[in-house]
Amino acid sequence: MDDLEILSEYSLYLKDKKEEGKKVIGFIAHDNIPEELIDAAGFIPLRMIFAGNDELMNASHDYLPPSTCAFAQSSIGLFSLKPSQFNFLNLLEYFIVSNHCVSDICASEIISRYFNIPRLNFYISYTKNDNSLKYFKLELMDLKQQLEKIRGSEIPSEDLRESIIKYNKFKKRLLEINNLNIKSSEKLRIFQIAMLIGPEFLPKLDEILHEFREKTPQEPNKTKDLIVTGCSIFINDFLIDLIEESGGNVAFFDTWIGNSYLSQTFEEEKLNSELDPLDLLVHRFKNNIYGDHSVPNYLELKISQIEKIYHDYKQKTGKKLGVINHIIKFCDHISIMSAHFKNQLQEKGIRVLNLERDYSRANRGQLSTRIEAFMEML
């Protein structure tokens, strides 16, 4: 499945949902948006996980300066230019304004205001302490009330619990996909379409798992294996192709589209507890310590996580992992600590490439050269 097939399949899926009378609620994806709450309200969560190109970035400059995150620029450009393969964005009825970063807030507010999509607000804390957990629950309660106002009735607690259980099963199935020995571009595209469609994609995931388990086990590959951390590789981005063309294989996606999403699961004991379902979401937020909202310990936690992944993989396969720290240009969250991140990991013997870029096609050759040079070092 290539990017156009993903967009086409998702477009048909959303059209079917609209015909069923479902409302579509969009948001710039990050790992603390409670999609279960949107689902329990009877609505369709639409993650903005679409990369851009020169035209999309340039189209945003009437609203934001070029020194804004290239992903945020591209998200605005999608609404401004409305490329045909993204016509499904016309089905959006609400847009959540949240604060993963400054660019997230600005882009979300612009999309809502200038493209006439009513906004919902959901703000989160950057810290993890008792006060921030209380604040997060207040924001959950407020978002729940906003959704209830749209639907015209309360969201039953049992519906929210059922949604949490459903998404938990979905994420655990994706974790099984993550352990398959398949080409990294194929694995990434499974993650992408699955995260767009959500738990309704479970039957397809079961088919994929059955198909690969029936195959003859693959021989150990001779690729240079990698962790991609930092910014996600979004739909319509060519980066994964450059990595594979250079002899690389991404063994671990440590991003929103990957482990940062898949790892946020509950044990059965916790799911079956008498906790208010909103408290389950607070519990998950509390345990999401490797996301870049874990102030002030993000850098230390992220380094320890990468180091563990590296040693576990080396023990299991005998192969060393290189690390590509993927930085979308002007993404302050990732770039501000990139030098320290690289230095501290390399002191531990782990090779790191800080790869900062935007979505310009003109940079493709330069990116390829840098990735190939990094592969030679591994």
Q: Supply the helix-strand structural class.
A: alpha/beta
Distance from first to last alpha carbon:
30 Å
Helix-strand sequence = HEHEHHEHEHHHHEHEHHHHEHHEH
What does the main sheet amount to?
Answer: 4 strands, parallel
What is the name of the CATH architecture of the largest domain? 3-Layer(aba) Sandwich
Give the C-alpha Rg: 20 Å
Number of strands: 8
Number of discrete domains: 2
* Relative helix content: 40-55%
Strand order of the largest sheet: 2-1-3-4
Low-confidence stretches: none
* CATH class placement of the largest domain: Alpha Beta
Q: What percent of residues are in strands?
A: 5-15%
Morphology call: globular
**Helical region count?**
17
CATH topology grouping of the largest domain = Rossmann fold
Overall average pLDDT = 94
What's a concise summary of this model?
Helices cover 53% and strands 12% of the residues.
Looking at this protein, list some descriptive labels.
4-stranded parallel beta sheet, 378 residues, alpha/beta, Rossmann fold, 17 helices, 2 domains, 53% helix
Write the layout of secondary structure elements.
Layout: H1 3-19, E1 24-28, H2 35-40, E2 44-48, H3 54-59, H4 70-81, E3 92-97, H5 102-114, E4 119-121, H6 130-151, H7 157-178, H8 184-197, H9 202-214, E5 224-230, H10 239-245, E6 248-254, H11 259-262, H12 268-271, H13 277-287, H14 298-317, E7 322-328, H15 332-335, H16 338-347, E8 352-357, H17 364-377
Characterise the protein shown here.
With 378 residues, this protein is an alpha/beta fold. The chain folds into 2 domains: 3-155, 3-Layer(aba) Sandwich (Rossmann fold), CATH 3.40.50; 214-377, Rossmann fold (3-Layer(aba) Sandwich). It is built from 17 helices and 8 strands. It has helices at residues 3-19, 35-40, 54-59, 70-81, 102-114, 130-151, 157-178, 184-197, 202-214, 239-245, 259-262, 268-271, 277-287, 298-317, 332-335, 338-347, 364-377, and strands spanning 24-28, 44-48, 92-97, 119-121, 224-230, 248-254, 322-328, 352-357. It has a 4-stranded parallel beta sheet with strand order 2-1-3-4, with helices on both faces. Strands 6-5-7-8 form a 4-stranded parallel beta sheet, sandwiched between helices. The model has no long low-confidence stretch (mean pLDDT 94).
